[in-house]
Amino acid sequence: MIETCTTKGFSAVEYDNPDSWIRFDGTPLEGQVPFDEEEAVAFATLLTEVAHSLDLASAQKTPSSCPPRSLANGASTSPSPSTAVAGANVRVTGRSTATT
């Protein structure tokens, strides 16, 4: 799906609810999320790495409930910098697109 964003000319991807593990009790019932914080962070990291490998910026919508941490790839999940977009807290990470 992220690759499709590139072919359609988008410059960024956004994913929502990276803190899904706190929204459910972990019971692996249909419709609930049977993963924990570590797995959610790993998945968000993977999405970001795939986006960046395709020269897309990535954004996490509503990341404020995720505790700040340093990720294996050197990125940080701290809530700064963030910007208000249509009333939502969105944190954007990306590659520089500046050219010389």
Automatic annotation (TrEMBL):
InterPro entries: GH114_TIM-barrel. Residues 59-100 are annotated as: Disordered. Residues 74-88 have a biased composition (Low complexity). Residues 2-65 form the Glycoside-hydrolase family GH114 TIM-barrel domain. This is Glycoside-hydrolase family GH114 TIM-barrel domain-containing protein. It comes from Actinoalloteichus hoggarensis.
